[in-house]
Amino acid sequence: MTPVSSLPYPVLCLARDNSVSVAWTPTELQACNAVAWFRNRYFDDLRLFDAVGSSYRVSSAELAEPLRAWRRVVVRFLNQNLAVVLEVESLSSPSLEAAKQATIEWIHRAPEFWEAAYNLHELEALVQQSPDMETLCAILA
């Protein structure tokens, strides 16, 4: 298992709900709101690419602080932010090309979302032309 604090940032996050996000720090990576935690199970099988293109999968996600029943109700009702402790396992050696291909695959899983803000073909070209992970993350942030 690899601690997320040791990953080189930024980290590209590809979620099972087809969302794509970027975490610029370990704190950002280990945070979510109540809807993402309780309803969407955001961290289940979350795939990550670090700043050098190494691929990881979230193997364990737990709340940093346990919630009592009454606090859980308040957190969910107000959709408050939560701190999470993550454990990740390495999937592959560094590969910018693998990160680009996975990103394009995720974009094609929900093209209507991306087409609302981008021309899909232009976005794909930007992803393919990214010279490094930081540029790729900046395009998607």
Please outline the helices and strands.
Elements: E1 2-3, E2 11-14, E3 20-23, H1 26-29, E4 31-33, H2 34-39, E5 47-49, E6 55-63, H3 69-78, E7 81-92, H4 96-109, H5 111-115, H6 120-129, H7 133-140
Antiparallel strand pairs: 1-7, 2-3, 2-5, 4-7, 5-6, 6-7
Can you put this structure into words, describing what you see?
With 141 residues, this protein is α+β, with helices and mostly antiparallel strands. The chain contains seven helices and seven strands; from the N terminus they run E-E-E-H-E-H-E-E-H-E-H-H-H-H. Strands 1, 2, 3, 4, 5, 6 and 7 form a seven-stranded antiparallel sheet that branches. Helix 4 packs antiparallel against helix 6. The radius of gyration is 16 Å and the shape is globular. The model has no long low-confidence stretch (mean pLDDT 90).
The topology string of helices and strands comes to EEEHEHEEHEHHHH
Straight-line distance between termini: 27 Å
Q: Structural class of the helices, strands and pairings?
A: alpha+beta
Query: Shape, please?
Result: globular
Number of domains: 1
Strand content: 25-35%
Mean pLDDT level: 90
Percent of residues in helical segments? Answer: 40-55%
For the secondary structure, the number of strands is 7
How big is the Rg? 16 Å
| H/I helix tally | 7
Residue runs with pLDDT of under 50 for 5 or more positions: none
Largest sheet: 7 strands, antiparallel
Features:
141 residues; 7 helices; globular; alpha+beta; seven-stranded antiparallel sheet
Compose a concise summary of this entry.
The protein has 141 residues and is α+β, with helices and mostly antiparallel strands. Helices cover 40% and strands 26% of the residues. Helix 4 (96-109) runs antiparallel to helix 6 (120-129).
